[in-house]
Amino acid sequence: MNERLPDYLKKEILKIKSRKDIFETSKIIKEKELNTVCSSSRCPNLHLCFSNKTATFLLLGNKCTRKCPFCNIEHMDIETRYTEPASHALSSATAAVDTLEPQKVAYAVKTLELKHAVITMVTRDDLYDGGADILIKTIKEIRKTSDCKVVEVLTSDFNGNIKSALDVAESGVDIFGHNMETVERLYADIRPSSSYKRSLNLLKTVKQEKPDIVTKSGIMVGLGEDDGEVFQTIDDMIDNGVEFITIGQYLRPSLENIPVQRYIPLNKFIEYKNYANKKGVKQVFAAPLVRSSFGAEKFFKHSY
Fold first, then answer.
1. I want to staple 131 with a disulfide (CB 3.0 to 4.6 A). Which of 22, 124, 144, 288 is the partner?
2. According to the annotation, is 148 in a ligand binding site?
3. Does residue 269 fall inside a structural domain?
4. Where is the Radical SAM core domain (predicted)?
5. pLDDT, position 303
6. pLDDT tens track for 92-139
7. Count of domains in the chain?
8. Residue 293 assigned ligand-binding role
């Protein structure tokens, strides 16, 4: 186990944190009382993204119904975990859901003049549709009120509710993302309430049912996996229809999160990228500070 940050990472993080022109983005986010995964997860790229007037909007609150030990987002205790597919609109009984969130996010997208909007979510196993309704309304509101060219979503696994995933995919998104996060062997420790095969099946089904949508997924490294397991996970993602892949170094958000097992050398990220490219992946971002939505606009820059 190695908790000492390598010099190249220290320099890169310091360079990012020196960015000062983040005021406008922060102001709009605070004005509309929005959540971003940038802040909630303590992303090291926050200053860079905000200074470029970009952010990944976090829907359905800032507390998650799961408690993955790598994640800094707060945990919400629940009594009910819905397993049946959603068959109707979001119930008014779910008081924790901000029904005005779609309009607030759309306002931010328009005001920041975003050409590529990234929308993610906390996992909401307490909602029968996993929160799909709010995502769908947000996507449609962005399309209706702004000139945004590309809408990308990064969803939960909806607790296996494929109907919710497909409803989101059919609502006007260009990129459908769902992260595998880690290799299969580590799921019991890293994603204890999730399923490796369930996540793969979600990605596969979305691609099969909506072939025109780009599918995207990503993993963290440095959690205790070996290179063979990374390559196998890349193969599994490709075999299940994933076209864009991100690979980044896990960095411990706080002392309450699991420690880093190792810092991956820079040449290894090049190796992972080359492997995925040779396997036919359209776009691969692999570097220490790469995150699932960081630099997302570069994937689709030809569309603007």
1. 124
2. no
3. yes
4. 50-282
5. 44
6. 344 478 899 999 999 888 988 888 888 999 999 999 999 999 999 999
7. 1
8. yes
